[in-house]
Prior knowledge:
Layout: H1 7-28, H2 40-66, H3 84-93, H4 96-116, H5 122-147, H6 161-193, H7 199-203, H8 206-215, H9 221-227, H10 232-313, H11 322-346, H12 349-353, H13 356-368, E1 373-379, H14 387-408, E2 412-420, E3 423-430, H15 443-454, E4 458-463, E5 469-476
Parallel strand pairs: 1-2
Antiparallel strand pairs: 2-3, 3-5, 4-5
Amino acid sequence: MKKMPGKVFVSIISxxxxxxxxxxSLWNYRPVSNSYGSRAIYSITLLxxxxxxxxxxxxxxMLRQESGNQPLGWNPLFLIDVTVPLYLAAGxxxxxxxxxxxxxxxxxxMQAVLFSKRFVPLSYAFYRLAAIGLxxxxxxxxxxxxxxxxxxxxxxxxxxxxxxxxxxxxxxxADMIVFVLLPLAWLPIVLHCSTTFSWRGFLSLxxxxxxxxxLSVGLLVSIADYxxxxxxxxxxxxxxxxxxALYWLILLSIRLSEQTNALRRSLQRQEELxxxxxxxxxxxEDERRRLxxxxxxxxxxxxxxxxxxxxxxKKQVAQKDMQWLTDLQDLADQTLEGVRRACRDLRPSLxxxxxxxxxxxxxxxxxxSRGVACTFACSxxxxxxxxxxxxxxxxxxxxxxxxIWRHANAKQASIELHYLPQLVQVSIRDxxxxxxxxxxxxxxxxxxxxxxxxxxADLTITSSPHNGSTVExxxxxxx
Length: 479
């Protein structure tokens, strides 16, 4: 947080300016002889305060819903002020002192609420109040100077092309003054609440864009002025209905934007987790390959040497020790076979040397040797996939066969591999007991889905009680 320099000095200057504007508006205010009479200033002030508090309540409520009811800190969207066009309307339909009074009272209430919630410091509350009052003072006086006082009576002279042009030009100039100067009233709080600041970032704030959209309603002031005396309700309908509709659209835009940002962050987080899982899987496969190589090069070779040494000892030992030596040699052969099986399970060399088809065919044969009949079928022209895809498909099939062995009580299983022009399909079926659709899946099935997701494949698992299970994987070969 950056500390705003000279807070006390800014507060004193702001208070002096507030007092000066308040005294000027009270001294110069005169009721206008229109349909509202002397109550006009009270009605428009009350309307402005209620509109400001209601709009702020809607904004805070929406932000709390989007943040999951978490405590809210300062948000740039709090800068949006829906009542600024109402100040311009007060200046055009009543007079500039009335506009300044409405602005000071409304902003005083708003800044009091923001300060009580600890959203803004006291020095900024004074600065914002003085800045808004001064901007409205300049804009409404210039509007009155160019376009003249409010129309007390609607006459034919009011509808001349020259007068219409002057009225529109005065409203447009007043709107542009507020358009240019209003962001300067926000600058101190942005500096106070930002760790880094740039003019480009400041001018690209959503709050500024939304505030400028609301200020566009100020151009209707010149039209509302004509109806104010004859049809008072029509004047305010012309002005307030577009203002409220525009503010509602802004709230919807903010809500959609927040939801879009949340979805974007969620997707980015999912992509990061997916990349992290991919890296973990790659590291696991690299470690499996290293362990398989070490077992093959060190342990297996040592067992082979041990078996040959025991074979050579048969000629040198007595007959009574022959059975003991034979048992030792059988144990060495069994251990060697176990090490070779572990090497194949860790990282089958067939997958690296001959490809996916040979590896799945070996997996089928190996599974059949465990007591469950398993067939393998392949169709289409074989083509090598990238190593990550081949190992992922191999692990999915391996896990599917493992689940069949441990849980399905199946008598028959099959593996089908189909090479299509733009697709690779793998199916694993069994005639086991199956499972219900709502049954909880274990880590094995979750791991299969994660592996398929990492390579961009579609994995479908279908099963029903007593009807076996089917695992189908489809991988697109398109880049």
